[in-house]
């Protein structure tokens, strides 16, 4: 169950139970979603982890492996973590674009949102949390298997009551009749030809509601902007969101003084240990400085976000 539910019910500590989805966290770029099963077992390079030992422990706890002596953390799934571990059925939106979309579309509890296409449901989980508890996300995809898989995940992750998945060709048919007359507070499009859906989005959006279209190519953005240049829309803007991630870790470093006559490049030595072990009793802990540097494979261009506001 996602933290959406947790935050709605109780902000306090939550205990892991059978059937829960937990995020097994090794480090920021190595984690996976696991469904807790009685007598289930997880094996990884840190050891063997029987699920029975997880049940009753609080989310966020550290558990030590049976063989190997390493450890992992058991985190509660949030939309942000789910985006990092979900099964990819399509290209997905990541947290930088997602947070910008939620902020710029002014989503809040109670908002009614139209989304197309659902894809792998990465964005949908965050939309659901933003509009909870009284709002709703209506998400559309014309691909049957993707729509069904996403629906199952929304149910299992505890946001099913906030999301309705419908199979529909939005570029061809537009949004359903029930939304005509400004029933939606916001519309989000992640489609190959979003400009085809804009007339229908215009008739579904309330006055002053926001639309956003995500496209990887600038040619798509040009056509979308042309389609938005009609009296029904104003305040058209396009953004590209880029995030620079930093790697923070402890490192063995020697100063030139300690190195004597060695070249500075030789002074960075000894890579960090591969296996995390609990410190052995009686052994002195080594102190190492913490260094921070830009992560070498930081994500670059994902897509352009084009926003506009419904006017009369
Ligand atoms: C890139 S994926 C969306 C990913 C999603 N934003 C996420 O974060 O997981 C695009 C989706 O649009 C769907 N799609 C493409 N054309 C469509 C159409 N005409 N009507 C409805 N869905 C469509 C595809 O099946 C695909 O699942």
TrEMBL record:
Basic residues bias spans: 273-286
Keywords: Methyltransferase, Nucleus, S-adenosyl-L-methionine, Transferase, tRNA processing
Family that this chain belongs to: Belongs to the class I-like SAM-binding methyltransferase superfamily. TRM61 family.
PROSITE patterns given in the database record: SAM_TRM61
Keyword Kinase listed: no
Domain tRNA (adenine(58)-N(1))-methyltransferase catalytic subunit TRM61 C-terminal as annotated: residue spans: 70-309
Record's catalysed reaction(s): adenosine(58) in tRNA + S-adenosyl-L-methionine = N(1)-methyladenosine(58) in tRNA + S-adenosyl-L-homocysteine + H(+)
Gene3D superfamilies: 3.10.330.20, Vaccinia Virus protein VP39
Region annotation (Disordered) ranges: 268-312
EC number, as in UniProt: 2.1.1.220
Protein name: tRNA (adenine(58)-N(1))-methyltransferase
Top EC group: transferase
The keyword S-adenosyl-L-methionine is annotated on this UniProt entry: yes
Subcellular localization(s) per the UniProt record: Nucleus
Protein source organism: Sphagnum troendelagicum
CDD domains the UniProt entry points to: AdoMet_MTases
């Amino acid at each position: 169950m996602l933290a959406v539910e947790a935050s709605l019910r109780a902000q306090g500590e939550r205990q892991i139970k059978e059937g829960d989805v937990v995020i097994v966290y090794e480090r920021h770029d190595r984690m996976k979603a696991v469904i807790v099963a009685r007598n289930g077992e997880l094996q990884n390079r840190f050891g063997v982890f029987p699920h029975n030992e997880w049940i009753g422990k609080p989310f966020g706890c550290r558990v030590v492996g049976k063989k190997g002596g390493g450890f992992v953390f058991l985190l509660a799934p949030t939309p942000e973590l789910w985006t990092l571990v979900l099964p990819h059925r399509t290209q997905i939106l990541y947290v930088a674009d997602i947070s910008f979309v939620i902020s710029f579309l002014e989503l809040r509890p109670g908002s009614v949102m139209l989304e197309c296409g659902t894809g792998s449901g990465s964005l949908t989980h965050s939309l659901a949390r933003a509009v909870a508890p009284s709002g709703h996300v209506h998400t559309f995809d014309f691909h049957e298997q993707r729509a069904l898989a996403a629906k199952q995940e929304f149910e299992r992750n505890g946001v099913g009551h906030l999301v309705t998945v419908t199979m529909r060709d939005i570029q061809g048919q537009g949004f359903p009749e029930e939304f005509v007359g400004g029933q939606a507070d916001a519309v989000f499009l992640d489609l190959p030809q979003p400009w085809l859906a804009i007339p229908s989005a215009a008739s579904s959006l309330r006055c002053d509601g926001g639309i956003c279209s995500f496209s990887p190519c600038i040619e798509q953005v040009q056509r979308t902007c042309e389609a938005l240049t009609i009296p029904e829309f104003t305040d058209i803007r396009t953004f590209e969101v880029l995030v620079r991630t930093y790697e923070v870790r402890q490192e063995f470093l020697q100063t030139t003084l300690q190195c004597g006559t060695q070249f500075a490049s030789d002074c960075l030595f000894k890579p960090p240990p591969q296996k995390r072990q609990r410190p052995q009793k009686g052994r002195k802990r080594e102190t190492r400085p913490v260094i921070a540097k830009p992560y070498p494979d930081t994500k670059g261009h994902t897509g352009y976000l084009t926003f506009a506001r419904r006017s009369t």
